[in-house]
Amino acid sequence: MNQAVILAGGQGKRMKAPIPKPLFQVLGEPMLGWVISACEQADLKRICVITGYEAEQIKAYLGTRCETRFQAERRGTGHAVMQARDYLEEHTEGNTLVLCGDAPFVDSDTIKNALDAHVKQSNAVTVITSEVENPFGYGRILRTESGISAIVEEKDATDEQRKICEINSGCYWFRTDRLLELLDRIGDNNVQHEYYLTDTVGIAIGMGLRAGAFCSQNPDVVLGANDRKDLLKLNEAARLAVLEKHMENGIGFVCTDGIIIERGVKIGAGTEILPGVILRGKTLIGENCKIGPNCVIENTVVGDNVTLNTVQAYESQIDSDVKCGPYVHVRPNSHICKGVAIGDFVEIKNSEIGKYTMIAHLAYIGDSDVGKRVNIGCGCVTVNFDGVKKSRCVIGDNAFVGCNTNLIAPVTLGKGVYTAAGSTITTDIPDYALAIDRGTLQIKEGYTLRKFKKDE
Fold first, then answer.
1. Burial class (CB in 10 A: 0-12, 13-18, 19+), 261
2. H or E, element range at 314
3. Residue 185: exposed, middle, or buried by beta-carbon count in 10 A (0-12, 13-18, 19+)?
4. Strands (E), 132-210
């Protein structure tokens, strides 16, 4: 059985925040999540995460997705893997991938191809490497005709060795039984008194075992984040990579300023994304839409031929041929049906808006079921909360809700009902009726003259 051990015990002091470094996000997803996803896509079913600093935060994030082991003291990468000894001993017949939880751009193709090379070459250990233009600060790979002889760190390298551009990514494939042997032989005879996983290469060669290296075609496989500047670079690299992929799939961008599209988002061909758009989570955008400027769409399904201008929509469904905006807020559990037109300063919450309904401006529709071809005037409100519980309003097909109408839930307007402007409706209205409720008008003549005289 092939399995993975992910090292995720780092604190990341230079991040200056009380969360483990692997939980810092790249495009809205923790770096650790990127690494786990790559392992899962490479068909690694068994994954163990080594925790350390604020371990409970990582365990809460993982849930039941992976096993965990705890590294009480941070004494190097080799020491971290030692904490998973019992996990490794459960399945010793296969291979184990060891990788870092704060290097988010490792990809499934690299993992699978490195494993193929590892098995074909009968290696005890295979280091995943990458060639970069500026290798400063990274361990250099010293190759031989039959494999590699060592990994030389920057500070220990000769001038000639520093010219080598093939560097260690921090990811390794091991034969699991050999990994257990190698862990027993790692020492802490160094200035930091730590156990380094890189030492396994020299130890394996000293035991007469074969050590190899697989050079990934992905130059970003080595990238990680030690501080906020590095994290920003990771986010920008990931952002641009996602945008390029969408452009290849027929998505239009007139300018990429402020556009953030998380990697779980899917967009149909012919859609145009304008500046300032943020698409999050499992959002699905249909074909030939115009999204933006300045939209935030999260976990929402959007149909074809939709126009959204300065819209925020969360965990909802917007069907085809809808026009929304500007300044529309669609809150969770809402369904905007086909052909609906929603104008400026409208909020929809936990409601269904029927086909071809129009809500032109300045309205709040909450906890409501609105029928087809309804017209909702300016300033209308469904009053859905009485201070204790929330109730629903129902508005029938072809109703006309006049300006500044308040519907006090629970209340139902029948089909074709008209409400007069300024009405407050507290009882159900039958089909095709006109509802007028404006109270009693009182006129107090001379009021302002008396008031001004009193104030002198």
1. buried
2. strand 311-314
3. middle
4. 140-144, 147-152, 166-175
Q: How far apart are CA 67 and CA 77, in angstroms?
A: 18
Q: How do strand 278-280 and strand 434-435 relate by DSSP bridges? A: unpaired
Cβ(257)–Cβ(236) below 8 Å:
no
Sign of the CA dihedral running 255, 256, 259, 262: positive
State both tokens at 310.
Answer: 């300065």
Active-site residue, 329 included? no
Q: Rounded to an integer, what distance in angstroms lies between the CA atom of residue 183 and that of residue 113?
A: 25
Please list the residues that pair with 323 across neighbouring strands. 307, 341
Query: Phi, psi at residue 139, to the nearest 5°?
Result: -70, 130
3-state secondary structure of 350: coil
Q: Which of 57-71, 138-152, 315-329, 372-386 has the lowest mean pLDDT?
A: 138-152
Please answer whether residues 432 and 416 qualify as being in contact, where contact means their C-beta atoms are separated by less than 8 angstroms: yes
**What percent of the chain stands above pLDDT 70?**
100
**Going from the N-terminus, what domains does the chain have, and what CATH number goes with each?**
3-222 (3.90.550.10), 228-435 (2.160.10.10)
Q: What is the pLDDT of residues 414-423, one digit of tens each?
A: 999 999 999 9
CA proximity to 311, closest of 281, 267, 272, 276: 276
In whole angstroms, give the CA distance from residue 193 to residue 69.
22
Task: Name the active-site residue from 118, 329, 335, 361.
Answer: 361
The CA-atom distances, in angstroms, between 256 and each of 243, 274, 404 are 8, 8, 40
- Length of the chain equals 456
- Nearest Cα neighbor of 283 from 263, 305, 268, 265 is 265
